[in-house]
Each structure stands twice: as C-alpha cells, then as structure tokens.
Amino acid sequence: MVTAFAALMAAIRLGDIHSVQNHIANSRLDLNSVDQFDYSPLILASLCGHYEIVEFLLESGARCDRDTFQGERAVYSALNDRIRSLLLKHDYSISVDRNQPFVSLISSLWSKEVGCASLVGITLPRPNGDICLQLSRDESFDYYAHTFILVARSNYFRNRIWTGDSSLPIKLTLPTDLTPTSISLALRYMYLYDTDTLIDKSDLTSTENLALIFGMPGLFDARTTMEGKDRRQKRAIAVELAQRDLLQLWEDCLRVPLRINRNEQFSTEMLNRKLLLLQPDIILQVESPTGGFTYCYGAHKAVIQSDFISTAARFKEKFQSQCGDKSPVLVTVDVAPIIMETLLKWFYTDLIDISPNLALELLVAADMLLIERLKPKVCLIIATQDSRDLLTGDLGYSIFDVARAGWLTGTFPKLDPFCAKFLASHLEDCLNENGMLRHQFEELIKESATRIERRENTDTIELVDDIRYYLNERFRMRFDTLPMEMFLGLDEKPDGDPPNQQEATKPSEMLRTGTEEYTRLMMGFDKLLGRYSYVLFIRNTGKVANKQTNVSKRDWG
Length: 557
What we know:
Elements: H1 4-14, H2 17-26, H3 41-48, H4 51-59, H5 69-76, H6 81-90, H7 100-110, E1 116-117, E2 123-124, E3 131-135, E4 138-145, H8 147-153, H9 155-162, E5 171-174, H10 180-190, H11 196-201, H12 204-214, H13 217-223, H14 231-254, E6 258-261, H15 273-277, E7 282-287, E8 293-299, H16 307-322, E9 329-332, H17 337-349, H18 359-368, H19 374-383, H20 389-392, H21 399-409, H22 412-425, H23 427-430, H24 436-449, H25 462-480, H26 501-530, E10 535-537, E11 544-546
Parallel strand pairs: 3-5, 7-9
Antiparallel strand pairs: 1-2, 3-4, 6-8, 7-8, 10-11
Helix pairs in contact: 1-2, 1-3, 3-4, 3-5, 4-6, 8-9, 8-14, 12-13, 14-17, 18-19, 18-21, 19-22, 21-22, 22-25, 25-26
Pfam family, one: BTB
Keywords: ANK repeat, Repeat
Organism: Dactylellina haptotyla (strain CBS 200.50) (Nematode-trapping fungus)
C-alpha cells in the first residue's frame, strides 16, 4: 500500500506541482521527514530540478538549514544555479526563522507521523490527545485533541470546558451544522498546521461562520485581511497570535503553582479547577530555597522539551500504569521555583522573560535538564551585558563565573569570545596588584590552560590569545576613529602646508597617550603571565610539557 508520504515523493519526482499541493494540503505530512533513501521532499525536488516545487516547499515550512547535513545536501544537490540561489536566499534555518521550532512543536501534536525527536538521540512519541471531538450526526467522525490547545485557541471550547460541570470532559459533541471538513480546518488552524491552501479554497461565508462559532477571529482574518500577503507573512502572523493565546493560558492557569508543606503528600484534587480541567498529565515539583514548602506545577508532557524530564516521566509512568494509577506523573526537579516558572513559560510559548541576574542559573538548569535549544538563547541574554556589575559580581555572578559556566555547559563557543572581550575592555582592573580581581583572573587563566588534555609544546592558551586579540582590537578601533592627518608626518598637512605648533602638539599627544596605554597594559599582562610557568600534565603519557612563552617562567602558585 502506497503511503501518503510516498505519493508525495512520487509527485515531486514527476514535477507535478498540483499533486504536491494537494498532498500537502490534505495529508498530515512532515515536510522534513526522509524516505528509505534518506531523501527529504526538498532534497528530491532540488535534485530533480523542479524550481516551482522547491519554492512551494520552502514557503510551506520545509527547512533548508546549511548547518545541518540535510540542508547541505539540498544546496549541493541542486540541479541548477537558479535553485541553488533560491535555497541560499531562504536559508530557512533556526537562526533566521526564530518561530520555526515553536511551530514544529505545536504542529507535531496534530500530525501523528511526527515524533518528539530527542536532542540526545532518544525518540519519544508525542502523547495522544486527551479529549474526543464528535459530531452527533456522524458517529464515524472523531478527533482526539489536546484540551490545553482547545482552551487556549478557541473561545467556544474554553467556555464549554470551563463553564461545564465539575467532571473532566472526555468527549465533546459539536454542533450539528458543522462538517468534518470545517472542523478539520479549525483544528489545523489551532495546531498551526498548514492551513493556507484550505483557507484560500474555502468559501468566505463558511469561513466567517466557522470563526464565529469557534470564537477564532484570526481564522477569518487569515481569509480576508491577509489575502495580499505571501505565505511566510501569513505564517508569522498566525504564529504570533498562537503565542499570544498560549501566553494568556499560561498566565491564567499555569503560572501560579500549588504550594504544599514539604512533608505533605500531593493529591490531584489540590489543584485549582481551571488547571484540573486542562487535564495536566505531569506535575513538576521544586523545593522552596528558603522555607519548608514544595511548589507543584501542573503541565503537559506534550510540550515538555527536556529530555531529562521526559525520560524521568516515562519511567515513572510505567510503574504507575502497572499499579493501575492514572494520576499525573510526579517529577521532582532540582531548580529554583523562579527558574521552573521561566522554563514552563518557554515550553508553552517559546518566550523567555528573565532578569540578567538569573540568566546564568537558567543556563546551568537548561544544561542539567538537557534542553539544548534553550542554551543559545540564554547565552545571548548573558552576552548582551556590558556592565561593571558583571566584573564585581553584583549581579550574583561575575565574568569569571560566566567563563566557567561556558566550559561546564558546552556553550564556550558563544561565551568565550564575550568573556575575553569583556576582560580585555577591563584589563586595567584585572591587573591591579591590590585587588581581588587579579587573583580571580590568574585562576581563570590557569583553568583555561588545563582544559587542553593532550598539550603539545607549541599549544597556546585560548583565553590568553583571545584577550590579546580583543585588546589589539580595542586600541585599533580607537585609532581608526582618529583623522588621517594625525598619522602623517607632523611637519606637514595633507595639503602640504606646514602645521602650526598647536596643531602638531595635539595629535602627537593623543597618539602618544594611546600608545603608552596600550604598551602599559600589554606589559602588565605579560608581567602577570611571566610570574608563572605553564606546567601542564599530559594525562595520556604522564609527561610534563612546559608552555613556551616569550617571558620568564616560574611555577604556578
């Protein structure tokens, strides 16, 4: 039997763009999946030279990230330069399309063919929906959806679920004037699954009625006000609206945790009614750092993007199912409540709102919980600071802690350049003989030196090299801002006229001051390094390699 994905790939090989459009519009397909030959739809269309299909796939959400193997294959397999230029122009990567991971997460809950691709190689299937939608006149039609998605995105479902009886709804019967096609369109819109083709083909009046029934004005706007926009603009507007809906749900139901005594046993009945009606299937417990309390956050495994939490929940769920326990899985997480609150908000909305003094703690938590996609975003928050508070530790951590955290969490490619540039900008404070910063600076250089396990005699210390580079950049940029005539001979102007004494003295003084400051800092830095020798043990041989430098050597410490 030919699957829908195989039929799509066959249409791409033939270059039948109309069949490709129909397959994507009417099937729950992941455009970034691959077939038995490891071809994705985009790679195959690029290889066969079908420009219009490549363009359509890119607009429909196919990824072409040149930093990945699949994206690189799509570019280098292009049959002609026209397709290659199109792929390079889009470069539909995470760094360009910031909403793409959020869209993939929500749409994967609708598409049953998409699994939760773990970042450490574990594949966890997405949980099935927790509520069944049925038509009274068509018993064969039923869709399992997620209650939290329905409540967040539709006023109709929100009112029916929250204002109904106190029992948890398992089935909802929909109005008789709705058709399976219209309900499918509404659900696709809620789950951010590609609705452009269906909306464009649908009748304007029926779309308006559907938007009114389900309380989704954005659905009607997609058919009218966004008619002149391209697919990417429509997608961006729809994603922004979905983020706003889920953010409102998080504010209303998920933000405030249940607080219980540390020795008190948790029970599902303790949750507030609104959260209980969302049918959370996982409870995240964190301990209060100050008092004897435990905070319990209700959540849904469908949005958890932590491999650590997902794996722990899966094992606990097996034990509970053997005992016949159907209550939410309880997982204890060793983070502060404010960090857990930030993580949950990011899980549901892909938005980060945290003060700089908590950014380093969030980075360590993301590394501990195996949330790889969050770490670059937190690094960006840390690396945008340029305050002396980062030098003195008034933020709760210092620049030295940032460097060590980068080494610990594997984010040093992003944090090391920032730390070196920051230290080069404040090298005067780090070289002060009477300050505590000098000792911390020396210790950081030692740790940077010992990070190379198999050190050779010609190896350098990365942190030292980076600081020298950024120190040179610091003074080079300062000199680049000076006028050209300052670097000419002081006995003539650019036009050949001799300068007066005042004009000659000012540039000379500025250049001399800058040069002296640069020389003083470099000599101070070399003096600090010259007090020690870089004696490092090569672990695999047990030998000692003395770091070769152009300064005198002594032992470290």
